[in-house]
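Reminder to self: tokens first, then the designed residues, so the page reads top to bottom the way the pipeline ran.
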């Protein structure tokens, strides 16, 4: 998906040959090639920014979910220590299953 947005490969740049006029390389051909390279670099910069943004969002979500798990474990520990027999093992397993679905998604 992201590769389709880049026109040139490093090999394309390395192997590019320009036609030679009497005074050297054709300036229009060189300028057109450089414009393509500039366009690719701009696109790569945009892609990197998009990926960094997505990475930050995933890290933030991961931190939030880890905090939810910590809170759930603390609540579970408090319930165990309180000696409250109203919570059964089935209730605990159901709650743990719900937390796993939140963290890992429905599979």
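Designed residues (107 positions):
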């Amino acid at each position: 998906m992201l590769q389709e947005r880049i026109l040139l490969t490093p090999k394309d740049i390395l192997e590019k040959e320009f036609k030679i006029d009497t005074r050297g390389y054709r300036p229009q051909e060189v300028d057109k090639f450089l414009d393509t390279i500039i366009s690719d670099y701009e696109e790569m910069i945009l892609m990197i920014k998009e990926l960094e943004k997505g990475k930050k969002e995933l890290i933030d979500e991961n931190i939030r979910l880890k905090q939810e798990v910590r809170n759930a474990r603390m609540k579970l520990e408090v319930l165990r220590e309180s000696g409250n027999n109203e919570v059964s093992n089935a209730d605990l397993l159901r709650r743990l299953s719900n937390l796993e679905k939140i963290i890992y998604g429905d599979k």
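The first strand starts at residue 20 and ends at 21.
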